[in-house]
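INFO batch 0412 | record 1 of 1 | parsing
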Amino acid sequence: MTVLSSQKDPEALTLTIVAEFDAPVERVWQVWEDPRQLERWWGPPTWPATFTQHDFVAGGSSKYHMTGPEGEIAGGWWDNVVVAAPSRFEWVDGFSDENGDRSTEMPTIDGAVTIAEVDGKTRMTTVSTFGSVEQLEQLVQMGMEEGLKLAMGQIDGLLVEVPAN
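INFO prediction complete | emitting tokens
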């Protein structure tokens, strides 16, 4: 199983998901770096993502939307803070409306992913940090934790199907 653990910590205002893969660190990094690979796993299987912008450098931004089974659209954006290939990515994550405009009504999330070799496998630790317990609970109730676990569960298949760049 790809996802090893998921831990919600209201005191630290974090949601941490740890996943492990049978692929080199550089190959796992590519699933974040390449927008065509990213959109094959970002979002639950029934809500595939489409990245319309992916400027994957520090200071760059990404825009995407996920399409639900009934054609619903859920938009999002990232402001990329740290992009240190192949081991560290930090970003600010937010929601957008149907026009791709950033939502001021929904909270933003600080995200950080660390990719490292552990015992011959690659471990990916993703930490989402929220502004308050209420924001953490709101997004978990909206399905963020389950959605991320389902999304990350698609990476193993992608690593096998798509050759390394």
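INFO post-check: The chain has one domain: 3-161.
INFO record closed
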